[in-house]
Amino acid sequence: MPHRFTTLRLRTELDLVRALETCTAVTDEGGLRLRQDYVQDAVAERLQPRRHLLPGLVLRDLVRLCVKLPDGLAALAVAVDFVGDETTARAVRLCVAELDALAALEGELSAADWLMLRDCLWERVLPDAARVAYEITADRLSRPPAGHETLWHLFVHLAPCNAAPEVDPPWLVFLRFAAARLDPPARAHVERLVQTTADRWDLPEPPAHLDPIPPADRPAGEEPTAHLMIQIEPAAARPDQLLVSSWRQWDLGPWRPVRGEEHTVAATELQATVEQLIVDMEAEWGAGGTRDDAGRARTLAVEF
């Protein structure tokens, strides 16, 4: 019997539960209650998991409730960031991204297409995933979560981002880009899907190049500079803490800084948080990526 999207969603929800079950801090009574409180605060709605269930089933019931609530899964992922370890948080973020992608692509792809793409893209690493997402979407989506560096990670990250009529959606643009980086059998499968989808939507032929668009020319003599902008302000809901926000731009061309994750920290943690933002920026900036050296910044400016 062919796989249906409903079955795929249920399997992904089960993967989410299993990811949560790997972390003791998430599954014990205190962690479960704390995570429930975080989710309730984020979605402004009271959650009422059935406490008479066995411990493992209580966790599954909480996931079920989060799936039904707008932004419930995103709130769950943030809650796990607070109470879980990084390995669990990373697995949870991927499951949430897959569920969002399934919701966005139902009716556009078949379940067989989804499984084929997952098989082709799952283990192919793309070290500069953040930059590719930045260029394909013109910064309409936040950067991919840390650690999400495979072609599959980036595909599910781009899936919810729509496009204007008669314009390839970002996920389809990305599949054209990804196909060129696959082995011949996988490449043929992905290219066939891309062409079939483009024909069905009557999309125009893509440009000859498959890589993201190169940067615009800069005035002669202008020093190419990467920017990290950091904003520090009191946290509205927690006056005793500070909200640290950041924006980054690695490359030349249009001014499209990418918003980073927000951090709520105590004053004593502020210096370490800012230093970590700078270290992370330097690491990503120095890693190279989709643009050639002529389009890469030579210096890094940090602004507050």
From TrEMBL:
Domain annotation vWA-MoxR associated protein middle region: ranges: 110-206
Chain coiled-coil ranges: none
Protein name (record): Uncharacterized protein
Region (Disordered): 203-222
Superkingdom per UniProt: Bacteria
Domain Effector-associated: 17-90
Biased composition (Pro residues): 204-217
